[in-house]
Structure of Inositol 3-kinase:
Amino acid sequence: MAPSPAAAMPLAAEPDEVVVEVEEEEERGVKGGGGVAGLDEVEGLVVGSYCHDVLLRGGRVVGETLGGAAAFVSNVLDAASPARASLAVVSKVGHDFAYATAAAPARHPPVLCASPTTSFHARFSDDAASAHAPDRQLRRVHACDPIYPADLPDRRFAYGLAVGVAGEVLPETLERMIRLCRAVLVDAQALIRAFDGEAKGGGAVRHVALEATPYARLLPRVAFLKASSEEAPYVGVETARRRCCVIVTEGRDGCRLYWDGGEARVAPFPAVQVDPTGAGDSFLAGFASGLLWGLSATDAALLGNFFGAAAVSQVGVPTFDPKMLQAVKQILEKAVKRPCTHINGNTFTFQRSSIHDELHKSLQEAAMLVCEQKQANSPATDNGDVCSINELTSLPS
Ligand SMILES: Nc1ncnc2c1ncn2[C@@H]1O[C@H](COP(=O)(O)OP(=O)(O)OP(=O)(O)O)[C@@H](O)[C@H]1O
Ligand SMILES: O[C@H]1[C@H](O)[C@@H](O)[C@H](O)[C@@H](O)[C@H]1O
């Protein structure tokens, strides 16, 4: 389908009784802060729980890391958003949570629950994964409490990201996000995951059709829905694109955007892949940062691809080189003459802009910095903490 000459869509959030309630409370001075974020103050809301990821290959544990889309997402948003953007994260963990001092949870502490921290076993296959084949089998071993509507802060946000991993973002919680946030971006994995019987070894993660879930009716009030190519058939791209913009990530091939009336392919960046975990999460956050910088959706997807590629080059939640981040921000400052977040405006534009190719070229140079840094840090003899899931098998468990 050829891109339409002009494409814009209304923002997700419509005034309704809850927002009115918040407004009334603000007027009465009951709640501080809030209000629709202006250009000088853009606050985002991330909803989804941190988790424990156990990486297995050939039946052996080859790595244990902090996981959960909220960890990857806040890591990128904190690093790549324009200076005036801030973030609130609503995440739940148990008393067994092992990563309270890791960067993302330390900056955005989770709520402590009596139930154990959500935990996944990711079983990597020995076969070289194709760009579209599932690269790992996931089992949910523990599930923390769901995140309820009442767990969300009682104020409004410029944008929200619904990024559950284990069904913790309930339909009513997503609905409240939509009411509180001017634009909501959703990871399909938060909506379509089902878990087989929690037998010994945990419940296998499978997918259900989005249309058969209570989330389907909320889609017209969602701005962007991101799905991996494995999840896309369950989302039903042709139906969903009539309700919101759908982004399908295609691993090392980059991504495609589908909106009502147009579509675009966005090219990937080079990466030395060591662990695919969190690529989709980092993509979504890079994409949201791009919108915050004022890019069109297709241009913002470049930033999504950039951070997706950066994520696969490290095991677990990546640490970004400050020089690389500075280079990226300089590129964006130069490309976007006046950052004026589309997230905060009245419409989104989807089209590739005239700066797209130049932006891709400049970011490609920054991506090469990541690859070079990775190669310099991990010579063949190095079996430190940046080795690949393959290399990890040679480490003592
Ligand atoms: N090997 C790679 N090389 C370059 N970029 C990659 C690679 N793998 C992933 N990416 C980037 O990350 C984005 C998301 O990757 P992918 O489609 O694998 O998501 P995903 O399956 O949801 O990932 P995960 O479930 O591991 O978080 C891709 O669209 C691409 O931009
Ligand atoms: O940490 C990971 C990551 O957040 C992935 O996106 C998700 O698919 C997994 O369930 C989770 O364990």
User: Anything to note?
Assistant: The CA atoms of residues 302 and 360 lie 7 Å apart. The pocket of 1,2,3,4,5,6-hexahydroxy-cyclohexane (ligand 2) is lined by residues 51, 53, 67-69, 72, 120, 138, 165, 189, 277-278, 280-281 (CB under 6 Å).
